[in-house]
Protein 1
Amino acid sequence: MKIIEKDFHISSKSRDQMIDITSQVSDIVGQSGITNGDVIVFCPHTTAAITINENADPSVPHDILLTFSELMPQHRPGYRHGEGNSDAHCKSSLVGCSEQVLIKDGRLNLGTWQGIFFCEFDGPRSRRVLVQVRGE
Ligand code: ZN
C-alpha cells in the first residue's frame, strides 16, 4: 500500500465560512497515482472543521452556518474561555476535524451533490489542511 501526505493553505474571509476544497483534494488524489483506496482530509485547528455536504446550491452552506450560529451563539452567559471564541470551539467539535472519502478508479467517490468543505468558525485567518492518500 502506498501512502502520500500533502497539505495546502487556505485563507478564510469571514468569521464563519464554508470553503469548498473538493478540487484541491481531488488534485492531490490525482497527482498521487493511487487509483483505489481512500483519502483522509484533516483540519489541524481547534476552531475550524471539515465536513461533507451539498456544494451545488450555495444556500446550503449558508443555512448550515445560520443554524450553527443559532444553536451556538458567539456570546453566551456562562462561557469561561477567555478568547471569546467558545462558540467556534463548540462548532469545531460538533462538526469534527476530519473526513474520509473512498477513491475509485482514481477519483473521489462522492455522491452527486457532495463536496468537501473546510469550515471556518473563527476567521478570517490563514489555515492549513492535511491530506493523506492511501491505497494502490
Ligand atoms: Zn479559543
Protein 2
Amino acid sequence: MNFPRGRELVLGVGAGIAAYKSADLLRRLQDRGFLVTVVPTPNSLNFVGKATWEALSGRKAQSELWENVSDVPHVSLGDKANLILVAPATADLIARIAHGRADDLLTNTILSTTAPIVIVPAMHPKMWLNPATVKNVQTLRDRGVFVMDPAIGRLTGSDSGVGRFPDSSAIIDFVEESYGYCADLLGARVLVTAGGTREAIDPVRFIGNRSSGKQGWAIANQAAMRGAQVTLVLGPNSLPKIEGIETVEIESAAEMRDEILARFDDIDVLVMSAAVADARPVSVSDEKIKKEMLGSLLLEENQDLLAEFAAKKRTNQVIAGFAAETESNHEALVSAAKSKLARKGADLIYVNDVSSGKVFGSDMTSGAIITREGKIIPIEEVSKEMLADTLLDQIRERVSHG
Ligand code: CTP
C-alpha cells in the first residue's frame, strides 16, 4: 500500500500502565522528525497526566470532545494527521475502535480520519488471548489497520507472557515499515538556500529574479521528514512556514553568505538551490535615484557562494548546486551542467531545463541530476517534492559513505 508521506502524527494513548513508556516513544518519534499531537483517552490520565504530554509534545493534549469545540477537533485532528499511532492500546480501546465507537476524542478522531492507523496493544496475556480480543484484532487487521503483536516478557504483576508493550525502537521500526517512512537522514545537519536574492539599488528599487523558492522549500521539507536537522536560508517569498526547522529570512546575497558562513562548520550538507543575484550595484544610494540616472548604474559581480563554500568544504561535507539552463536538447543541457559542476566544485548538481519559461513558479520540474563522478539521472516532469526526494537519495548516499 502506498501512503501519502507526511510528518504529522497523532499519538493516541490508552489507559494501560504502559502509558508511561509512551513518553519515551513520543521523544523517539520526535527525534525521527515526526510532529506529534498526543490524544490521551480520559482514563489514561490516571496513569500519565496531560501536563506530561503537553510539556513533551509542545502542543495541547486533548482527551474529550467538549474542549475547544469551535476547532471541531474530532475532525480537524484526523484531517491533519498523516498517521495515527495508538500506543498503548488496551483491550477496551481495541474493542471500541473495532466496533466503530466514538465515545472520546481519540475514538472520534480514528473514526473520522483517512490516515493510516497503527495500533500497539499492551495488556495481560489472558485479555490478549481472549476470543473477544482476538476477534477484534482480526477485524481491525481485515480493515487495513496495522496491529503490532505485543512482546513477550515480564508483565506488571509477578507473571509473564504475551502482552508486554514493545520497546520504543521496535515500535518505531514497525511504524516506519507499515507507513513506508524512513528517517534515513536522521541527525544529518542540512542547510538549504532557496528563493532569489534582492540587491538594493536605492530605498525603493532592487535587482532581483523570478525564483519562488518552492524547490528549496520542498528540499528542506523532505529533508526534515527524513529526520535531518534543517536550516532554510530563504530569500523574499510567499511560502508557508515549515514547523520544526530553522528558517532564516534574508534579502541580499551578502546576507545569505553571512548566514551560511555562520553555520558552515557545523553542517553535513549544503544545498544551494537559491537563485543568487549575479550582480549588485557598486554602491547603494540612500536616496531614490532619478530615473535619468539609472542608465549610469554601475554593477559588480556577486561572490559565487557555491564555488566559495565548495572550495572550503571538508571531505565529509556534501554540497549540491543548481543550474538553470535554456538549452533545448538533453545533451547540451547535460554538457552545460557538467562544466558548471566542475567549475563550481560541487559534489552534484541539478540542472533545471528552463527553456521557454518552464520551472519558475511552477510545481513541476524537468532536467537531470549529475554527480561529480559523471552519473546522470534524467528527471522528466516530476513534482518539486519528488525531485527533492531523488536529490536527497543521492545526497544520503554520499553522507553515509563520506
Ligand atoms: N550561485 C551562488 N552564488 C552566486 C550565483 C550562483 O552560489 N553568486 C549558485 C546557485 O545557488 C546555484 C548555482 O550557483 O546553485 C548555479 O547558478 P547559475 O546562476 O546557474 O550559475 P552562474 O554561475 O550564474 O552561471 P551562468 O549564469 O553564467 O550560467
Protein 3
Amino acid sequence: MMYPEYRPRRLRLREEVRALVRETQLSVNDLIYPLFIRDGKGVREEIASMPGVYRFTVDTVIAEIKACLELGLKAFLLFGIPFQKDEVGSSAFAKEGVVQRAIKAIKDKFPEAVIITDVCLCEYTSHGHCGIIKGGEVDNDLTLEQLAKVAVSHAKAGADWVAPSDMMDGRVARIREALDEAGFPNVAIMSYAVKYCSAFYGPFREAAESAPKFGDRKSYQMDPANSREALREALMDVEEGADIIMVKPAMPYLDIIKMLRDNLHHPIAAYQVSGEYAMIKSASKLGYLEEERVLWESLISIKRAGADLIITYFAKRVAELLTK
Ligand code: PBG
C-alpha cells in the first residue's frame, strides 16, 4: 500500500463516506446510567463536583427513569445513600433499605427497566470502608457474608443484576452461591473484577458520602501500576461465575480493557468514573474543551478498546444526542 496508488484520504472526504467505513458505533444499548438514591422525600439535589448529576430520593427518581426510558436508555446502576450508618453497614441489606425500596418502586412502574445494583458496604458503614473492620483491617471473609446478604436483599427486591464493587477475594463465588440458594439463579453478576485504587473516584465519594474515615483502599483495590494482575483478577471472577467483567476507571485503563477483550469471551463493561466526568465537565465550563465532542470521543475510545458496555454519568445526555 503505497502512495500515490493508495490514498487513505479518499475514504475521509465527506461525512457520508466516513460513516460507511466507521469501525466503532455507539448506541443507547451500550450505556448504563448510574443513579444516586438517598433516604428522605422529595429531594433532587445537584452534586457540586459533578454538575448535571443529582442525588434523588425514591419518589423523585421515578421521573428520571421515565425520561430515560423514553429516550431508549434502559439500564440503571443504583447506589444508595442511607441516613443510618453503622460499623457493619446493616442498612445495606435492610428489607426497607433505600436501594431495596427504590428497586421495588421502579420495577412496579417500569418492569422493562434493567436494574443493576452496586453491592458494597462503603456507603453504609460509619467508617466508610468497603468491608467489616477487625483489628484495624478490612476482614475479607467476614465481609463476604455481609455482601452475600446485600446481594440477596437486592435480588428479593427485584434487581436484574448485582454488581459487587468491594474487591474482596472470593466474593463472586460467595454471592453466586447465596443467590442460587435463595432461588435467584437468573440474577446476573456484573463484577467490578478489575477495580483500581484510583484518585478518579474523588467526586463519587462526595456524592455518595463514602470516603474512608481512616486509611485508604489500597489493601483491597488494585495498584494502578499492574496489568498482569488485572488478567488474574478477571479470570478468577469468570471462574467464580461472573457474567460480565468490569474495568474501572475507563480512560486511564484502555490497555487493560483491550487486554481483557483479547483474553476473555465474556461481555466487558467499563466504568467512566466520577473523576473522568468531572474533568470533562470542568474543562468544558472553563472553555478549554468542547464538551460534546470530548464526551463522544471518550466513549468511542472505550468501545474501540473493547468494552461492550459503558457505565457513564453522560448516559442520559448521550441518549438525548442519539435521538436528536
Ligand atoms: C463503591 C464504589 C465506588 C465507585 C463505585 N462504587 C467508590 C470507591 O470505591 O471509592 C466509584 C464510582 C465513581 O467514581 O464514579 N465501592
